[in-house]
Design a protein that fits this description.
alpha/beta; Rossmann fold; 8-stranded mixed beta sheet; globular
């Protein structure tokens, strides 16, 4: 019951939709530095962990220990958002799901999509369940990533995995003529869903973007927890 309650409270589920999270080919969370891209991606991934499904979190920013800490913090924020929960019950659930998270840490020089493909092939070779979702955090979308995205697209298709990316924007940049941040505009044909986060007063405004229209759905988030402000 606690799992279902937490999934329902998830800001990712409430804003994007449970089916949309897993049915996208490529999804993106955009914001400038420090607003909450990674924390939002972790909330997306938690929706799969709470179904006892594996997720693969690949970071070009954070070491493994920091990735682990991010997930525990996000889980605790989610638990706190539903009111009182027996601490022992919450701890037992965390112990149950935490090992379904697989974290890989690279930098720009060591990251190669081929490594991800080989890693995923090892699951099939060992007859293990594949991750249900990939989080890709830290790719530099100010660079030409077409070759990298093509390779990751092939991996997504081969293994049937949705991939959610962080995409950093910049305060001083104007939006493209289409209304999208320029980082997304360059690659939007590859992305099914995108969420844009930006500060608004003392909150974070989350805007759902689609390929067909300008920003069309708005939600306010608590910057300390990334939970929806009721």
């Amino acid at each position: 019951m606690l799992k279902k309650d937490l999934i329902k409270r998830s800001p990712a589920v409430r804003i994007i939709g449970e089916e949309e999270i897993e049915n996208v080919h490529f999804g993106a969370v955009l914001s400038r530095a420090g607003v909450g891209k990674t924390r939002y991606l972790v909330q997306i991934a938690l929706t799969k962990l709470l179904k006892n499904e594996k997720i693969l979190h690949i970071s070009l920013n954070d070491p493994i220990e920091k990735i682990k800490a991010r997930y525990l913090e996000a889980y605790n924020d989610l638990v706190d958002s539903i009111g009182y929960v027996d601490p022992q019950k919450a701890l037992r659930l965390w112990e149950e799901i935490k090992n379904e998270k697989i974290a890989l840490s690279y930098n720009e020089n060591t990251f190669d999509p081929e490594k991800i493909k080989v890693y995923l092939k090892s699951f099939k070779k060992d007859d293990l369940a594949l991750p249900a979702l990939i989080v890709m955090d830290g790719l530099d979308f100010d660079r030409d990533l077409n070759e990298t995205l093509t390779e990751l697209e092939k991996i997504s298709e081969r293994f049937g995995l949705p991939v959610w990316y962080s995409m950093q924007t910049h305060r001083e940049q104007d939006f493209a003529q289409s209304g999208y941040p320029v980082q997304l505009e360059k690659v939007k044909g590859r992305f099914d869903k995108a969420v844009f986060l930006h500060p608004k007063n003392d909150k974070i405004e989350s805007v759902v973007l689609t390929d067909e229209s300008r920003p069309n759905e708005y939600y306010l988030l608590d910057p300390a927890t990334m939970m929806i402000v009721e």
